[in-house]
Known about the structure:
This protein has ten helices and no strands. The chain has helices at residues 2-29, 36-60, 71-92, 96-125, 130-159, 167-186, 191-218, 220-229, 231-234, 237-240. It is flat.
Amino acid sequence: MQRSASLGEGALLGVLCALVVAVPAAWRVAGEAVSVPIACVGLAGGAVLLLAPLLMAARASRPWPKAASPLPAAVLIALGPLMFFAALLKVFTHHRPLGATTFAIGSAVMMLGAIALAARFGQWARSAGRMRLVGRAALAGSILFSLALAAREVAPALGDIGARSGARGQMFDVLLAVIVVVVASRLSLPSPVQRLAKLGGIVVFVVLALSGFFVLRATPELLESARSSAPLVLGVGSWLGG
């Protein structure tokens, strides 16, 4: 019974995350032939096919093993430094294979460091007395600093949100998707929302996926624009749309 409720919660949260991720991308891909709301439905229908199963698995596997508990916070702590590191490599490294290798090694080191920090700050936050406040402040400060650094890298995408292409727009899509998925995987839902998710979460997921499928089939202009400007949001819809 608990597992079915968790699956419903994951499906409903996946729908909400897909809609959040789809809105900025819809502004980029919509045009004269397709309105922003229609583009949002099409993109969300593609995104939910990835996000909902991911969150269903994350919610159904709770409570997570103790060793995995720092991972969501570690992802957020590492996100900004990783994006800044990637931007530096793009400027100073002109040999792409070398840059890719450097980024792979650097990102692994940063991720390990972020996991260590998240585990330590989490341990402090669960302790008693003054260290509890120190741990919570350190964890929140690290995440906010990382998100601010990441926002700095994608800020040009926000200033050019109507552009029909561009790597920065896709970078913003990735940043937004990571944030909403990490938050949703850890979110505690109120009892009324839990009951709603248990009753209709999977149904809402299926309805959005089918709606996106039909929108993409009916609007080839949207499909082609999304393939070039928002492929990560479109996701599986890239081939479901035809």
